[in-house]
Amino acid sequence: MLEPLFLVNINCINCENSFKSSRVRPSFKKSYAKDTDFYSHYKEINPDYYVVRVCPFCGFATTEHTENKLSKDQKTVFKEKIGSQWKMRDYSGERTWDDAMQTMKLALLCCQIKEEKPRIIAGLLHHISWLHRAKDDQANEMRFMKFALDAYIQVFETEQLDLNNARLMYLIGELHRRLGNYNDAVRWFSRVIQDKRIMDASMIKACREQWAATREDMIAAKLELPEEMKEKRA
Ligand SMILES: [Zn+2]
Questions:
Q1: CA of 45 to the centre of ligand 1 (A)
Q2: Which position among 108, 160, 210, 215 has the lowest Cβ density within 10 Å, counted as fewest Cβ atoms?
Q3: pTM, 2 dp
Q4: For residue 40, what are the contacts with CB-CB under 8 A and spacing of at least 6?
Q5: Using one digit for the tens of pLDDT, what is the confidence trace for 48-79?
Q6: What are the strands, taking DSSP E only, across 5-147?
Q7: How many angstroms does the Cα of residue 190 sit away from the middle of ligand 1?
Q8: CB within 5 A of ion ligand 1: which residues?
Q9: CB-based contacts of 92, cutoff 8 Å, min separation 6
């Protein structure tokens, strides 16, 4: 039988050694459900566990979206913060939830040292929040969701518009809703619904649905609905 994991060769951008990291075969990446913030549920193996590649020799962690450059100064900072205390540790092979969390947090630190694009950092923060969701740890899920939301807003404000903007705006709205910032959620959903330049039909539909979901949330929380929400529309 085909194993779900296979090894790929990675060259470390910090110490330049090569090492192996596990990936999940595409045929095993079958999710059975997706949450409204794009979190996918998997029955057996969770591909999110294998997103981060950690160099066993120096501890530098990357994802496939990391840029392949590290300046001399960044290498020095990495050595001070992580490298000098690193003990040889091999994360290839099967990973537990704890391994996944450790590798994700390492990648976050490395991306911060590397001054990666906000988009990459936002994605890692969101993944850390999802890992906590998988364990029903709501306090930590929400804590990292708030960090992810702030980072996504920074992406929206700083990165140029070749990105899928409707998807990003939807996500910002949805994280606001999940954090209970209902007025902000409605504002972001409405922007997508009302912006005539946005052509992304699936995101417009998602924003309408979550606009309605936010309205229900507000009614359930006995909050005063803003004027525009008093009539059920969207
Ligand atoms: Zn290395």
A1: 27
A2: 160
A3: 0.93
A4: 31, 33, 34, 48
A5: 999 999 999 999 999 998 888 899 999 999 99
A6: 5-11, 18-24, 31-34, 40-42, 53-54, 61-62
A7: 46
A8: 12, 14-15, 55, 57-58, 60
A9: 7, 19, 20, 21, 22, 56
